[in-house]
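Need tokens for this chain, all 278 residues.
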Amino acid sequence: MLRKYMIPLGMVFLLAILAACASGPPRSQDFTFVQISDPQIGMYMAFKEADDYTPELRDFARGVELVSDLAPEFIVITGDLVETWNNHTEIAHFMEFKAALEAHAPVHLQPGNHDMAPNPEGLEFYRRTYGPDRGVLEFEGCRFILLNSNLIAYTSLAAEEEEQWGWLVGELWNAREENARHIFVFQHHPFFLHEADEEDAYFNIPTAKRMRYLELFAEHGVTANFSGHYHREAGGFHKGTEYIVTSSLGYPLGDTPPGMRRVEVTADGYSHSFIPLP
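Here are the structure tokens for all 278 residues:
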């Protein structure tokens, strides 16, 4: 025999309200972040095109203005923060720039070849001065892995590279197991500028090491890799991963003016563009 239970109308409304409060309004997973590379304060003087830091300080102020307009969730600076790694005047100017950016968004730093000497002592100097040389961020279901590419580029840091490699493999496995929407990897040196099999040169990672990382990224479904170092725009694809080489905020070596990269992540994927300074 079936029994019928009557629920008072008021109780129905209360249950509906409680359910709505528990679930909350739908949250958009769309967001924007910014990559800045090679602010490299002191490079104009090194190239004999300035007598002081005026060009970089001007561009730093314009960079803060642009970040304010772009309103990113966070900023990644992919190395060459200064021209001379142990120049404390340059470091102080850069840290002022970083603090100004942090008024608008969190800032995450990575070392470039100008930010540390290529030995364990240089690595320790970087960590004392700027903080960790690698890390992982999680945002809206995406994983952001920050590498120290100096460990890859210099044979004098081979032991440190192997330690970082083991850490990287573990983080990529974690991202896969947790079904990350996207995996983005950042470092200073590009693995390649245009083609995965291009010849070794100053601005790319040597082939012997390059292919090891490219195959690892393909295996784990890395969405995109962001780098700098080249002071020009470049990039390409390899086995489904996009490799994006971002031009400099500081002294440019090509036709691209100083600027930064805006990356927009949506439910449909991601897009990016290089934005010149205003």
